[in-house]
Amino acid sequence: MSARPDPRALAPYDALLLVSFGGPEAPEEVMPFLRQVTGGRGIPDERLAEVGEHYFLFGGRSPINDQCRDLLAALRGELAGRGLDVPVYWGNRNTAPWLGDTMAEIAADGHRRVLAVTTSAYPSYSSCRQYRENLFDAWSGVRDAGTELQVDRVRHYAQHPGFVDANLAAVREAVARVDDEVPHLLFVTHSIPTAMADSAGPPPRSSTGSYVDWHRSVAREIAWQLRQESGDEHPFELVYCSRSGPPSQPWLEPDVNDRLEELAAEGVRSVVLAPIGFVSDHMEVIFDLDTEARETADRLGMRMERAATAGVHPAFVAGLVDLALERASVARAEPAAPSVVEGGSPGLVACPADCCPNLREPGRPTLCGAPASA
Ligand SMILES: CC1=C(CCC(=O)O)c2cc3nc(cc4[nH]c(cc5[nH]c(cc1n2)c(C)c5CCC(=O)O)c(CCC(=O)O)c4C)C(CCC(=O)O)=C3C
Ligand SMILES: [Fe+2]
Question: MF terms per GO, please (predicted)?
Answer without folding.
Answer: ferrochelatase activity; metal ion binding
